[in-house]
Amino acid sequence: MTIHPNVLDSGVRRESRLRKRIADEIRRDGPIPFSRYMEMCLYEPDLGYYSRSREQFGKAGDFYTSSDVHAVFGRLLARQFEEMWCVLDSPRHIEVIELGPGRGLFAGDVLDWSAKTFPEFSRALHYALVEQAANLRARLQERLAEHIAAERARVFESLEAAASTAGENIIVFGNEFFDALPVEVVDYRGGLRIGVENGRFVETFVPPTAAEIELLDRYGVHPEEGERVEATLVSLEWMERIAEIFRGKRGFFVAIDYGYTREEQLAGRHRDTIMSYRQHAASTSPYEAPGEQDITAHVNFTALRARGVERGLDPMALLTQSQFLIGIGEETQFADAFQECKPPQERAKVALQLKHLITPTGMGETFQVLLMSVGVAKEKAAGLSGLKLTRIPG
Fold it and tell me: Nearest Cα to 99, choosing from 38, 29, 157, 41?
């Protein structure tokens, strides 16, 4: 692939401008928490990774999501959302609120497949996309123009704005949303701070904050000699916001992401999970190209679940994406994937894509699914097909 020099030049200029902006803040205010550095790298207006105009997703970008693999991911979730609607007694109106919808592929797949396969559910379904990056909101408006014109979908800047237009019944959904939220990093030497020396970012350390210590005490582990771990404080703030919008409403919360439980951390896994991605190549250094690479951290599902429970959400299950999708697709033998396949070679191709979504060698065991509910009878919710192979029950 040939990359035009102007594209490279613009990337270098943007990186240089963001690097200078971060350095200026450090010189003005002193060393900054890693969460602030990560926030600026990802979300700084016009310069951050998610705020720029270049493609971040799919083959042309830096990483894949499940929706990039095949439309069956959205179709299976549409089937699960329809079941959730039935559990809620098939109300005349239900709002699916998607957090961090990216290019809108998933939303389009859910809306299209619902209209084709579940017409009654489709008539009740309204779809809200929550995206804080202005450039991505504009692209969502274009991609989903038909659904927006038909008043089946709307794009919002904040969760609260989306919830304000919803009725009593909601499903809050996030796929690879929490992994992109800023995190604090606690090293065995202390809380990580980012300084600048001779034009380069350098790491310094301060005593961990009370909030960081409490999170690690309750939901994680403290780093041993030579280790560092993440404190996912911003994720917990988001769980509090999600719980707040459920007040006076009922429905479900579904989060799909790569992550871990406290038990897995105690067993010695999932420590120092900060990763950067650029052009489908992984790196452990988040300092190389500010604004030009994605920065992620694994999700602490123990902490998310506990904070949700503290704020009034009922736990349902934590299971792998493989278990979740197989449970949904088992009864129909994954007809959602193969229904439109005619030539045998097309079926073979789709079978490989489906395999990537559900097998341990693909995304199936890497991604976890957290399900919670509000105002839903447990015995009714237990019948959801996605829960057939539950790993950790509520």
Answer: 157
